[in-house]
Design brief:
Elements lengths: L1 H8 L6 H8 L10 E12 L2 E13 L2 E10 L9 E7 L4 E7 L3 E8 L2 E8 L2 E9 L6 E2 L5 H15 E4 L2 E4 L4 E7 L4 E17 L2 E11 L4 E7 L5 E7 L4 E5 L1
Parallel strand pairs: 9-12
Antiparallel strand pairs: 1-2, 1-17, 2-3, 3-4, 4-5, 5-6, 6-7, 7-8, 10-11, 12-13, 13-14, 14-15, 15-16, 16-17
Length: 247
């Protein structure tokens, strides 16, 4: 649990537990590349695999870097998409980039705002859209489930702690302001720990922690493995007949 908590808190150095974890590290050691997670998610709609998301999460020189690529299985609109998210150790946005071959966008902090620049094939000059949001706002872009994992880590780091080897979280949901760059919109979402559940993944039964993620128009169930660095293992979007499973 302690090793997992250190990894989780790497994305939330503002928390007091994160500071304690940092004290156990050799402060004289230079900060090189540290791999946090890598792998792929299979996205299934009505039981049919439609997209594979390949991702990596690492830390380098004080930055947390999240990279993701989408590969279509058959005629998926998500083909060719890729995203790169960079944050400070305190969870502050440094830069977010997305592209799909026909267009691209970049989100960066701009004084007290976030500024999104959108480039399309039809226009050589990027359109700009500011958002009255702090640079600690979470990026939760369309189709990238690793962003949901990072949000789950942030929730666990800010709202939970380990006591006698058990994870204890404050009662009630925690609210986050998030930006959805592809939709050029912001929203408020809520995340809450529902408890431990047994779920079947690739034919094997696993006991995992369930988190509920809710917005005004959606409800998602997320399952993370508290015995393996709180990695996201499964997502269920019941309203869309969609299931996401780590390969």
């Amino acid at each position: 649990m302690w090793r997992a908590a250190v990894v989780v808190l790497a994305f939330a150095a503002w928390s007091s537990i994160g500071a304690m974890a940092g004290d156990k590290k050799d402060k004289a050691k230079p900060q090189g590349l540290q791999q946090v997670d890598s792998g792929s998610f299979g996205v299934f709609v009505r039981g049919q695999r439609v997209v594979t998301e390949t991702f990596s999460v690492h830390q380098e020189n004080g930055l947390s870097v999240v990279k993701s690529r989408l590969q279509e299985t058959a005629n998926s609109a998500s083909a060719g998409q890729k995203s790169d998210l960079e944050m400070t150790g305190a969870g502050e946005l440094v830069r977010y980039e997305w592209s799909d071959g026909s267009g691209s966008l970049v989100v960066t902090p701009n004084n007290e705002f976030l500024l999104e620049k959108i480039t399309t094939a039809a226009s050589s000059k990027p359109a700009e859209q500011p958002f009255l949001m702090p640079n600690t706002s979470a990026i939760l872009d369309n189709n990238f489930f690793v962003h949901r994992q990072v949000l789950a880590w942030r929730y666990l780091a800010t709202n939970c702690q380990t006591q006698s080897g058990n994870l204890k979280c404050q009662q009630g949901p925690l609210e986050f302001g998030v930006l959805v760059p592809q939709d050029r919109t912001s929203m408020r979402v809520r995340m809450e720990l529902a408890g431990r559940e047994k779920v079947t993944i690739r034919g094997a039964e696993r006991e995992l922690l369930r988190l509920n993620l809710k917005g005004e128009a959606f409800t998602w169930a997320l399952w993370v493995d508290d015995k393996d660095q709180f990695k996201l293992m499964r997502v269920l979007i019941a309203d869309d007949n969609t299931e996401v499973v780590r390969d």
